[in-house]
Write a structure and sequence with these properties.
- Helix content is 49%, strand content 7%.
- By secondary structure, it is mainly alpha-helical.
- It has 16 helices and 5 strands.
- The protein is elongated and about 75 Å long.
- The strands form 2 sheets. It has a 3-stranded antiparallel beta sheet. A two-stranded antiparallel sheet has the order 4-5.
- The chain has 2 domains: 114 residues, no CATH class; 167 residues, Intergrase catalytic core (hpI Integrase, Chain A, Orthogonal Bundle), CATH 1.10.443.
- This is Site-specific recombinase XerD.
- GO terms for molecular function: DNA binding.
Length: 349
């Protein structure tokens, strides 16, 4: 007896679920986690869906998938889990079981993104990036990594003129009381430790400490983090700046140093808004990037600071910021360079 052929227009079940069929042993488990602490943090997110086992499973499996992706900052990480959990929940409503291996295929992800008409174009782009990253964990062939597009490198922002930081400190004595602590904090972190605007926002009281030197002197240091991991530790050699940072750290404990917070998170444009407020009051304002580049140029011209130390202190991978502004570096004659090299030879002998 001949088997009945599929109806016209139908798709065999094996075609739909050939790669996504749930296996007897899940591909992702607690044992495969690269970072258990990250998973435990991610699984605490909330999901705006009806309470019940399905929501719990969706969050749990979403956190598990996300914890297998590349480490990112805390806030984007939590947002990504919510997106993945929402997708897994919607995919599981019919069957009543959350199964990331069945759901996270290219066909299912694209259908959820493009055919439901429930998201704006901007949201689609964000969600697509998150879900493609998640799908890549399970099915790398369906979700190939995006290729980087090389673009011409822009020149570095020019460093501010020498003396700009001193002028801003003088202006700090004249600005309204509500702005003064913020201005001093930004100046101390940028001109004292070379922090970027994003690093200023993320710095906490726990990042301020001291290091004892052989002479018995104590120097304040600032731990600078990148994706939640300590990237560098920068000494603040100006005792006045170091003292203010210590006082602020004692005030906030383990909280953020920057005083303005929204829902417990420092505003993304906090430093730019400070600049706007200063201009509203008639002051010249500050350019965080040009201040930091001035700090880098001055550091590069400091006797005894090696290239290795410069790269480590500034948190940069190359010296392009100096190459773009070579004319602003001190002019050194052949005799100057010879004396420097001879002095260095004496130290190493």
């Amino acid at each position: 007896m001949l088997a009945a052929s599929p109806a016209a227009g139908s798709v065999p079940v094996a075609t739909l679920h050939s790669e996504s069929a749930p296996s007897r042993v899940r591909k992702l488990t607690r044992r495969t986690l690269p970072d258990l602490e990250r998973f435990e943090r991610l699984r605490q997110v909330s999901l705006a869906k009806p309470a019940g086992p399905l929501r719990t499973q969706a969050v749990e499996r979403a956190a598990l998938v996300r914890a297998h992706t590349k480490v990112s900052a805390a806030t984007p990480d939590l947002k990504a889990v919510r997106v993945i959990a929402r997708f897994l929940y919607d995919e599981a409503v019919i069957d009543g079981v959350v199964d990331e291996e069945r759901a996270l295929t290219r066909a299912h992800v694209d259908h959820w993104l493009y055919q439901s008409n429930q998201f704006s174009l901007r949201s689609v782009r964000t969600y697509r990036s998150i879900l493609y990253d998640a799908g890549r964990v399970l099915y790398p062939r369906e979700f190939p990594a995006p290729r980087a597009v090389l673009a011409p490198r822009g020149r570095a922002t020019p460093a501010c003129p020498p003396g700009t930081a001193q002028r801003l400190y003088e202006e700090a004595t004249l600005v309204p009381d509500v702005l003064r602590p913020r201005l001093l904090l930004v100046l101390d972190l940028i001109t004292g430790a070379g922090l970027r605007s994003s690093e200023v926002r993320e710095a906490t009281g726990g990042d301020i400490s001291t290091v004892s030197l052989g002479s018995g002197q104590e120097v304040v240091t600032v731990k600078v983090r990148k994706a939640g991991v300590i990237d560098r530790v920068v000494p603040v050699t100006d005792p006045r700046k170091g003292h203010r940072l210590q006082m602020r750290a004692r005030e906030v404990g383990t909280g953020t140093l920057y005083p303005l917070t929204v829902n417990g998170v420092v505003s993304k444009n906090a430093v730019s808004r400070l600049n706007d407020r200063l201009r509203e009051y008639g002051f010249a304002g500050l350019d965080a990037v040009s201040l930091r580049n001035r700090w880098i140029l001055d550091l590069a011209a400091t006797p005894g600071v090696s290239t290795a130390a410069l790269l480590k202190l500034a948190g940069i991978g190359d010296l392009r910021v100096l190459a773009d502004q070579a004319a602003l570096l001190p002019a050194l004659s052949a005799a100057d360079l010879a004396e420097m090299l001879l002095d260095a030879d004496e130290v190493t002998m």
